[in-house]
Amino acid sequence: MLFVLFDLGMWKTKALFNLMQENKRFEPLIMIEPSGKPYETESLKNYLEQKGYPYLMLEERQTIKSRIHPDIIFYQQPYGTFEKKNDYYQNFYALFCFVDYAFHGNNIDQFYHAILNNLVWQNYFENKLVMKNLPSFMPNKACNCLCTGLPMTDIYKQVSSDNPWKPQEKPKKRIIYAPHHTISSQEWLYFSTFLTYSDTMLLLAKKYSDKVQFAFKPHPALRGKLEYMWGKEKTDKYYQEWATMDNTQLEEGQYASLFIHSDAMIHDCSSFSIEYHYSQHPVMYLVREEHKNGKLNEFATTAFNLHYMGKNADDIERFIQMVISGDDPMAPKRKEFYDTYLKIPFGKSASENIINSILSAQVEKQFKSIKLDAKV
Questions:
Q1: Cβ neighbours for 333, distance < 8 A, ≥ 6 positions apart
Q2: Do 281 and 320 lie in a common domain?
Q3: What is the block-wise mean pLDDT of the chain (376 residues), using blocks of 10 residues?
Q4: In which element (H, E) is residue 177 found?
């Protein structure tokens, strides 16, 4: 069982990997796929070594098949990996399973028509509401799609004692600022507000330093795009300011504990529109002037509408003041959304559901083989 990873922040199958380690039917292994950004690859390597997770890194001319021969390969995004020699079409000797690194919140043809999404053996989804219209979007009519829940949600039951926030001299409200990477109008997805509010958020962090603690949680792809647009020196300076102020911190890796131990979030990232609701805390979405909601599916639209909307700097400041005061009119509706759509199916964890799906499929395959042999 091989898990292909290239970015720590996008590794959303950790709970599944851990559960497979405890099951004698599986021998899970991680392969680090270089992302083209050495600091990301090194960060992932250091994390895996610290946790004691088994992993391998291929040398320049090696392929997966030249090192090992996995029965099943788990991918984390539907567009293949960065190194073409190890992209999915080089590994058809194995069965593929796919767990997306984000919630399925958009009805976007580029995603549902992606080849990998349609040829994987098992493709896992979070709830029946998301799956309802999949047959009309996917060329394979969603024949490989299963409602199991997503493993990234399992961790929210396991992080209550793991608090990543920096100690403060006195209690403060904890607010996450999580900007998306789509900062260029030339991108097919363009909804980031970072260039509009990057300075505003730093100023507000300083203004409310005695009452609020802020965590800067940028999308992993933002830094590279800023280095191209701003230059490395300006980008490093901006990130460093978040990392070093007394009431702020920079978070670029795992974030479930950060969410659970926060009091609120301000963001413009579509996947967080759903995921942050696992914390059941108030959340603001920074809306572009030309923001269009047409690509969101019913599940994501419901989650999006449970946000306080930020259309300017004054809206952001009012939200911060609301969090400080403890006022939260949307709390009852968010609780209803959580109970209806975010609880894992079948009363188990998503990881348990996926393992059961894999093993039950294997049993069914063996059973059919036995019946066929009996007829002969």
A1: 306
A2: yes
A3: 85 92 95 74 89 86 80 79 58 89 77 83 91 88 93 80 90 97 70 93 98 96 94 98 98 89 94 92 89 73 96 97 97 94 89 94 47 34
A4: strand 173-178
Q: Nearest 5°: CA angle at 329, between 326 and 333?
A: 125
> What is 116-134 written as a DSSP string?
HHHH-SEEEES-HHHHTTH
Same domain as 49, residue 184 = no
**Environment class of 313 (CB within 10 Å of its CB; exposed 0-12, middle 13-18, buried 19+):** middle
Residues 325 and 357 in one domain: no
Token pair recorded at residue 253? 């890796």
Q: Hey, what long-range contacts does 20-23 have (CB within 8 A, 24 or more apart)?
A: 20/355, 23/355
Question: Which CATH number belongs to the domain containing residue 367 in this structure?
Answer: 3.40.50.2000
Cα separation of 176 and 187, whole Å? 25
Q: How far apart are CA 230 and CA 346, in angstroms?
A: 48
Sheet order of strands, 264-267 included: 248-250, 212-216, 173-178, 264-267, 283-286, 308-310
CA 283 – CA 241 distance, rounded (Å): 24
Strands (E), 218-275: 248-250, 264-267
What would you measure as the largest C-alpha separation in the chain, in angstroms?
79
Q: Are residues 181 and 94 in the same domain?
A: no
* Cα–Cα distance measured from residue 120 to residue 116, given in angstroms and rounded to the nearest whole number: 6
Do 61 and 106 belong to one domain?
yes
- Residue 262, domain member (yes or no): yes
Residue 187 lies in a domain: yes
Quote the CA–CA distance of 321 and 298 in Å, as a whole number: 31
Tell me, yes or no, if the pTM score tops 0.85: no
Q: Is the sign of the CA dihedral 111, 115, 118, 122 positive or negative?
A: negative
Q: Is 303 contained in some domain?
A: yes
Q: Contact, 148 vs 124, CB < 8 A?
A: yes
Which residues have a Cβ under 8 Å from the Cβ of 338 and sit 6 or more positions away? 277, 278, 280
Question: Does residue 68 lie in a domain region?
Answer: yes
Q: What is the pLDDT of residues 199-227, one digit of tens each?
A: 999 999 999 999 999 999 999 889 999 99
